[in-house]
Design brief:
The complex is a heterotrimer. Chain A is mostly helical. Chain A folds into 2 domains: 65-197, no CATH class; 216-433, MetI-like (MetI-like fold, Orthogonal Bundle), CATH 1.10.3720.10. Chain A is built from 18 helices and 3 strands. The radius of gyration of chain A is 32 Å and the shape is extended. By secondary structure, chain B is α/β, with parallel strands linked by helices. Chain B has one domain (8-22, 31-286): P-loop containing nucleotide triphosphate hydrolases (Rossmann fold). Chain B has helices at 2-13, 19-23, 82-89, 119-125, 140-151, 157-170, 174-177, 190-202, 220-233, 246-252, 270-275, 280-286, and strands at 42-53, 56-67, 71-75, 99-107, 110-111, 126-129, 208-212, 238-242, 255-260, 263-269. Classes of the chains: A mainly alpha, B alpha/beta, C mainly alpha. Chains in contact: A-B, B-C. The complex binds adenosine-5'-diphosphate and magnesium ion. Adenosine-5'-diphosphate binds next to strand 2 and helix 3 of chain B. Magnesium ion (MG) is lined by residues 82-83, 212 of chain B.
């Protein structure tokens, strides 16, 4: 077609077509380039996220496992309950550490010398004695018997087993001596070394010993804090959004409020922490490190987000619905509560969940109100000292022991799982209740 | 001039002792509308109504009676204030930020903008159907039952059922939806939705029904059904309809009012307006000479 | 009225209305020619011309059909209202009236053929004297009516309506005079009857011209003045509500 004589009768039309044809390759090339850049951008982003996830998972998955050593433990009547009364208090107060030591010594009878013995005893975690204590407490009839027990290995042994401590490194640069490695090999040959799923990681509080440290305390702390945050911020946020969007007159004051809500959403979160410190703790005298205070501070922090999301949700309800309700004689209040709010709820919930996810991942303001403390006990209420998941991660990331690296990563995996679950819930809610008009 | 109009309209109504009721309805100055703005048996009256949106003067000194059991059509170019005027009649403009209404509007001789008049009560008496069908995203049954419920019209569930059925019947929708009353109203076709909205409006037994371009989103068949419905509803209701379709105004209404840039230019019998309008602007508009 | 100034937004509508008017005017000119030719044939006893007049009626019938079709099309496709509606209705009636006026001229043609074609008895020369005058008036009336249509001029239309009175009077005067021919010589009766037909036909042409004018008034003013006495027609009456 394009080779037609341009001076023919239909010349002007032909020329348009030719011009279009001529410019076509350029246009398509441009489009292709644009698509390519877009894809590259997306791929880069994905690559970053992917490598982040990969490194966290590779670092962290071993954190969910723990090495155990099988040792024959004799629950010595003499050592535990010399009077034979099975008195729980006496049993609880007995010296279980000695049991562990004796058991280790029995496993390697030819070891002697104080420093060697200390190394031998160091192979089991200091948590092993509590393991025994718990067993006896649960079943006092154990006293006087001898059992093969799996005791928690120390973090160093754990690291060796997981390959994080390299045996080929010269002994003086390695945390674990050749002797210990030898004993470990002996045990392994006997089949007395095993790695198992680490339940303690989910139930324990923090600990100085990596093999005993868990996120249980932090998860409960986060739970209590978020509960406080939710209970406070959702009603206030929804009420504020409804009032501002539906009832408030549009004047200077409400404009000012609106601007300030938007500003508040952009305030660095640590400022809210300072506010909590100054007002809640110093002025009102609320306890430090407590989920109530954390929840209040986080509620303040997410309120602007919730209000803005809530107003957006209300705005997206078409005015025709309001008119319809008003048209049959519904009052303003009935219009809002019978029609507008139910339709806006999914959007508000989405905003709420995103706000909660934001709160869940927040660290900075909590540092200011003392939620960064080392808390061993799992909190049991809103006023117990506690820590939160992200703060726990921050604390562990700061710890020098090699074994805390995998704990940190494992905790991050848990946190990410929560965040993804919450966002997925938000997406689900949006899809499920989305309405078309 | 005030007195003149007062007596004139009294004479028109032919009811003695109206003078006191009309006292509040003094006309500030003659609006300049061509044609007979008053009718013998008015249901609603507007006297010297002005509407402002902020500084914008959207309705200028409009005086118009709306007769009982008549269909009055409001026509005029876009933005001339038809909807604005219509929405004054049930105080729908109250909800618009910055909208100010002055002048007098009465419904059965009660001042609509009186302090004592609750807009909720007014809107129960003056229902409205909107341009875009706007059923609630709820079951069909609940769409109709909503008005009676909030006003406490039905004493029992059975009574409510009856209201729903009779409203749907009168809207000519019963046979089409009686088997799916529990399905959302938004699932109906456009024309059905609009009839549902009309049924919803008549469920609270209003005296006046305002319709703002009720057929502009509908196809001709659905439009015809609505027009037939309007014709039937005229027996029991007074209907004000804003329409962009001159043919529709001609088909459904007995009187037609032509608005232009906020002025009520001409009112008259529909046949007169469409065969022999008296004002040049009306003529130019309806014959398509505008612009 | 249908000019560019103040025309419809849809210009094709204007064009259609214009072509309807053009058709009416063309038809009017044809009818006018018919009246003139018929009158001439009568005057000169020209049976050939009379046959032509009769023959040309077909063209007018064709135009009649075309005109009605055009009106129907306009009604169906444009749904005219107000002045447009009145204009279309008026033009439809005008076409109808012109066709009937043409029928009257055909009758004249037949009369001429009958009177001058059967070579036995020539009519008295003065028999058609009134017809001559009336034909002239009818032509004038029709011309004025067509002018009123062309310009949609109410004043001219009113003048036509009022002018028709004179034609009517001329008709009655003519009838009285024809009666005297009968008294003179009863053998004239055949020709006098023909002359009555002629006068009646010319009077009808005048009536149709008047109708044309009345439709112009209807189209422009929206007033049906067919049953209003001619002397009441004034611009004051027409503009009153
Ligand atoms: N909410 C509003 N705020 C400001 N101006 C408005 C508002 N609603 C309508 N107007 C103005 O008032 C005039 C009349 O509008 P409207 O009554 O909707 O016209 P119509 O229904 O005749 O098309 C228009 O010029 C419009 O711009
Ligand atoms: Mg409108």
């Amino acid at each position: 077609m394009s080779d037609d004589n341009p001076s023919s009768a239909g010349a002007p039309r032909r020329r348009t077509i030719d011009a279009v044809r001529a410019s076509l390759p350029r246009r398509y090339a441009k489009e292709r380039r644009f698509r390519l850049t877009g894809r590259l951008a997306v791929l880069t982003g994905l690559a970053f996220v992917g490598s982040l996830f990969l490194s966290i998972i590779l670092n962290g998955y071993t954190g969910f496992e723990q090495t155990y050593l099988k040792v024959q433990v004799t629950f010595d009547q003499e050592a535990l309950d010399p009077e034979g009364r099975r008195d729980p208090a006496a049993l609880a107060g007995a010296d279980y550490a000695a049991l562990v030591k004796r058991a280790m010594q029995a496993a390697f009878p030819d070891v002697s010398g104080r420093s060697e013995l200390r190394e031998l005893f160091g192979m089991v975690s200091s948590g092993a004695e509590y393991q025994l204590q718990d067993m006896v407490k649960a079943d006092p009839s154990l006293v006087g018997t001898t059992r093969d027990l799996w005791l928690i290995a120390s973090d160093d042994v754990d690291m060796v087993m997981k390959g994080h401590i390299d045996r080929r490194v010269p002994e003086d640069q390695r945390r674990v001596s050749d002797r210990v490695l030898g004993w470990l090999d002996v045990l392994e040959k006997k089949g007395a070394v095993d790695t198992r799923f680490n339940w303690r990681f989910f139930t324990n509080g923090d600990s100085r010993e990596p093999e005993l440290a868990g996120i249980g305390g932090a998860v409960m702390g986060s739970f209590y804090t978020l509960l406080v945050c939710l209970v406070i911020s959702f009603p206030i946020g929804v009420a504020a959004a409804v009032y501002l969007e539906e009832f408030a007159p549009k004047n200077r004051l409400t404009d000012l409020i609106e601007v300030n809500i938007n500003n508040l959403a952009a305030v660095p979160s640590i400022v809210f922490g300072l506010l909590g410190l100054a007002v809640l703790i110093n002025f009102f005298g609320m306890p430090r490190s407590a989920p109530v205070v954390g929840g209040l501070v986080l509620a303040l922090m997410v309120l602007p987000t919730i209000i803005i999301a809530g107003r957006a949700a209300l705005k997206s309800v078409p005015p025709s619905i309001r008119e319809a309700a008003l048209g049959v004689g519904a009052s303003k209040m009935q219009t809002v509560f019978h029609h507008v709010l139910p339709l806006a709820m999914p959007g508000m919930m989405t905003g709420m969940i995103i706000g909660m996810a934001h709160a869940l991942g927040e660290t900075a303001p909590l540092l200011m109100i003392g939620m960064v403390a080392f808390v061993v006990d799992v909190p049991k209420g809103f006023f117990d000292p506690s820590t939160l998941l992200p703060v726990q991660i921050y604390l562990w990331a700061d710890s020098p022991e090699r074994a805390f690296v995998e704990k940190t990563a494992a905790a991050i995996i848990v946190l990410l799982a929560f965040l993804i679950a919450m966002n997925a819930l938000a997406v689900y809610l949006r899809k499920r209740f989305e309405r078309r008009w | 001039m005030n007195a003149t109009m007062g007596t004139l309209s009294d004479a028109a109504t032919g009811v003695a002792g109206r003078a006191d009721a009309m006292d509040g309805l003094r006309i500030r100055n003659f609006s300049g509308t061509v044609g007979e703005v008053t009718v013998a048996n008015p249901r609603m009256r507007t006297r010297g109504v002005d509407v402002y949106y902020g500084d914008k003067h959207a309705i200028k000194n409009v005086t118009l009676d709306i007769g009982s059991n008549e269909v009055i059509a409001m026509i005029g170019p876009s933005g001339c204030g038809k909807s604005t005027f219509l929405r004054c009649l049930n105080r729908m403009n109250d909800t618009v930020e910055g909208c100010r209404v002055t002048g007098h509007i009465t419904l059965d001789d009660k001042d609509v903008y009186d302090r004592q008049m609750d807009p909720v009560v007014l809107r129960a008496q003056v229902g409205m159907v909107f341009q875009k069908p706007n059923p609630f995203p709820k079951p069909i049954y609940d769409n109709i039952a909503y008005g009676p419920r909030i006003h406490g019209i039905a004493a029992s569930r059975a009574e409510l059922d009856e209201i729903v059925e009779s409203s749907l019947r009168r809207a000519g929708l019963w046979d089409e939806v009686k088997d799916r009353l529990d399905q959302p109203g938004t699932g109906l076709s456009g024309g059905q939705q609009q009839r549902l909205c009309i049924a919803r409006a008549i469920a609270v037994s209003p005296e006046v029904i305002l319709m703002d371009e009720p057929c502009s989103a509908l196809d001709p068949i659905a439009t015809a059904k609505i027009e037939e419905l309007i014709d039937e509803l005229r027996q029991n209701y007074t209907i004000c309809i804003v329409t962009h379709s001159m043919q529709q105004a001609a088909r459904v209404s007995q009187r037609t009012a032509y608005f232009h840039l906020g002025d009520l230019i001409e009112v008259g019998e529909t046949t007169q307006i469409f065969t022999n309008p008296r004002h040049k602007l009306t003529e130019d508009y309806i014959t398509g000479r505008f612009g | 009225m249908n000019g560019k100034e103040g025309g419809h937004i849809v210009q094709r509508f204007d064009a259609q209305l214009g072509s309807l008017k053009d058709l009416v005017l063309e038809m009017g000119r044809l009818v006018l020619q018919q009246v003139r030719d018929a009158a001439q044939a009568l005057e000169e006893g020209d049976t050939g011309l009379a046959r032509q007049v009769v023959h040309r009626d077909r063209d007018i019938n064709t135009l009649d059909m075309k005109g009605q079709e055009l009106c129907l099309e306009l009604l169906a496709t444009r749904q005219p209202v107000a002045s447009d509606l009145r204009f279309v209705m008026a033009m439809s009636q005008a076409v109808n009236n012109l066709e009937r006026a043409a029928d009257e001229t055909k009758k004249l043609g037949y009369v001429v053929s009958r009177v001058y074609g059967e070579n036995d008895l020539q009519p008295i020369p003065s028999l058609f004297q009134d017809a001559r005058h009336m034909a002239a008036s009818a032509v004038e009336l029709l011309e004025d009516a067509l002018e009123a249509v062309e310009e949609l001029d109410v004043d001219k239309a009113v003048a036509v309506v009022q002018g028709d009175e004179q034609l009517n009077e001329a008709f009655h005067a003519g009838l009285r005079r024809l009666a005297t021919f009968l008294f003179e010589d009863p053998r004239n009766v055949r020709h006098v009857i023909e002359a009555v037909f002629v006068l009646k036909a010319l009077e009808r042409v005048g009536d149709h011209a008047t109708n044309l004018a009345e439709f112009v008034i209807y189209a422009v003013k929206g007033k049906d003045v067919r049953y209003v006495k001619a002397e009441h027609l004034s611009s004051g009456f027409l503009d009153a509500g």
